[in-house]
Design brief:
five-stranded antiparallel beta sheet, 349 residues, alpha+beta, 13 helices, disordered C terminus
């Protein structure tokens, strides 16, 4: 069925559609179920029949507007991709959690944690933020929180943006990390992990061989094999209601059945990410454009984060840079206006 893509009439896309709608039309349902769904489940914890083609696969969406064959377009993209571009995965030796700590330490800024922001209000001089029972006055504010929290904070001053943000749904997930002795496995896999299609009906949706993916982990504990199992996607919230012991049992069973682990893990950890992954449903880019347009009407205010233009770390950094640039330009224009006013007063105008 997938090969028929080369002879079928074009399925030209004129507006945003779901990933499943386009891929199924070109390559059939099995490709969606066995290849696309596990990939999107791993990245977004979402569903291909809801996720936006434009927002999640922009290069494919561009090809869908002009090309007849998806396979041919994909081959051309692959041929044009740079070779020897470096490793597929990269991280910091101390883990990505070390990055915000390093940035905070180098910034010279005051960083408060465990401080709930409860209200955001416009003032004649800028913005007033209520943190607990304390009020802070600021020249400008960047709202860098998940969409539901951003919606609540912006409700009073930017209701149009708040309404759009409230429509962005989130999925939760949990990571079960298992540490095994190397003797637990007859042989180690050659890959960095695998994804599980939802149609298989298994609770674990992905597994990562962290000791193989990150060499520094193997160097730090050469006698261990670190395995991370992921559970939870949109519509499967029930699995996340299980306690830590039950989730560890699910992951241990996966390791035994899929990987042949012959011993129990020597240590485990369960990390839960409730409501962590925004869902880029069909029409997401238009929604984001409306949010930015509404926020643009309020000088000294910007938004950024995973809810807008990509959930990966590079995409989040890009939205943060855009937000910071907007705020710096606002502050610079305010300084220029103050200087101009002082000059006019000095000249008696």
């Amino acid at each position: 069925r997938a090969a028929m893509d080369r002879v079928l009439p074009a399925t030209l896309v004129r507006s945003d559609v779901s990933v499943a709608a386009y891929i199924r039309a070109r390559l059939g349902g099995e490709v969606v179920d066995r290849l696309v769904e596990p990939m999107l489940g791993g990245v977004y914890a979402g569903r291909a029949d809801r996720l936006s083609l434009e927002a999640t696969m922009p290069r494919i969406a561009a090809a869908a507007r002009t090309e007849r064959s998806l396979l041919t377009a994909a081959e051309e993209m692959s041929a044009a991709a740079p070779r020897n571009a470096g490793p597929v995965f990269a991280t910091l030796r101390g883990g990505m959690g070390a990055l915000p700590e390093a940035v905070a330490a180098a910034s010279g800024a005051e960083v408060r944690t465990g401080a709930m922001v409860r209200e955001l209000r416009r003032t004649p001089e800028g913005w007033r933020v209520r943190v607990g029972e304390e009020h802070l006055d600021a020249d400008a504010v960047i709202v860098a929180v998940p969409a539901p929290a951003a919606s609540r904070l912006l409700q009073a001053e930017v209701p149009k943006a708040a309404a759009e943000l409230a429509r962005i749904e989130y999925a939760g997930m949990a990571i079960i990390t298992l540490a095994y002795r190397r003797s637990a496995f007859a042989r180690l896999p050659d890959s960095s992990g695998y994804l599980v299609p939802p149609v298989d009906g298994r609770p674990v949706k992905a597994a990562t061989f962290s000791s193989l993916k990150w060499p520094h982990l193997a160097e730090a504990a050469p006698e261990l094999v670190i395995l991370r199992c992921s559970v939870g996607r949109l519509g499967e919230e029930a699995v996340l209601q299980r306690d830590d012991a039950e989730l560890v049992a699910l992951a241990t069973a996966e390791a035994a059945e899929a990987l042949g682990a012959q011993e129990p893990p020597v240590d485990t950890r369960v990390t839960r990410w409730t409501g962590a992954l925004p869902q880029y449903d069909v029409g997401h880019l238009d929604r984001v454009a409306r949010i930015h347009a509404a926020v643009a009407d309020h000088p000294g205010l910007a938004v950024c984060g995973a809810a807008y233009d990509g959930i990966g770390i590079p995409a989040c950094i890009a939205t943060a840079r855009t937000a910071a640039t907007r705020i710096l330009e606002h502050l610079a224009s305010g300084t220029a206006a103050i200087h101009a006013s002082a000059i006019e007063q000095g000249e008696g105008r």
